[in-house]
Amino acid sequence: MSEKVMTMTEPRPAKPRGKGSGAADAALLFDEPGPRGRILIAIGSVVAVLGIAALAAVVLYRLDLAGQLDYPKWRYFLGQSVVSQLLEAAGTTLTLGGVAAVLTFPLGIALGWLRLLDNRPIRWLVGLWIDAMRAVPMLLLVYFFLLVVPRFATISDFWKLALPIVMCTSATTAEVFRSGVRALDRGQTEAAWALGMTPSLTMRLILAPQALRLMLPTLVTQMVTIIKGTTLAYVLAYPELMYRGSTMIGQAKIDAHLSVFFQTYVIIAVLYIIVNWSLGALARYIEARTR
Q1: pTM reported for the whole predicted model
Q2: What stretches pass through the bilayer (predicted)?
């Protein structure tokens, strides 16, 4: 009898969570719609699709009336010289963004590490720098390197833009790293200290690797911010996509007597969307792999 009682009172093992556990959790949080609710959702979806289609039709009609859909204006961008200019400008943009990212991520991690130190003066100074860089507009820093820094030192146009991007985005990266470390279980730090490990050794061997693994998708997403920040090179007349687009508009008026303002920036927007969407897809892939 006692064996039966013990068997009945033993806790049951937890069932493993399968692929459908997310849907089950959602069903617990939200009531499934009934027949009438499903009909209303279907009607709302159809109305939304029809509304978007009608809006798109109106926009295309207005563009056609303005002559923005004329084939010669779009055919201009199939020319070999125009394509080569766009590819060269895209390469310049990616190079600028890549160099800024290579400098941003180590600097941001170092700043986040310093802000976690027990040394109060260092932590306060680093926190002041991070807060200042997060508050100051990037364009203001670009003007600082464009107008003020050349009075004291010689600096190329490339670094006049790369350094402001690094300064702003490294501050955000530092906060991401600090949040990643703070999200870890406090018991790991206490266990490491109990084993005689120093705080710096604990950070280097235990906390930092886990925080980097958690923040890796966010770091990839930061690349989107960096790529968009390269558009400020327009202020410096640096030949990235935005500035190259403005020169191509004037070139089309002279060479082909065409006004391609709308077409130019649509194509440039598509190029930015392709690059940033690819980075977002990479971030989602890394996040799925690191779960």
Answers
A1: 0.76
A2: 39-61, 94-114, 126-146, 214-238, 258-283
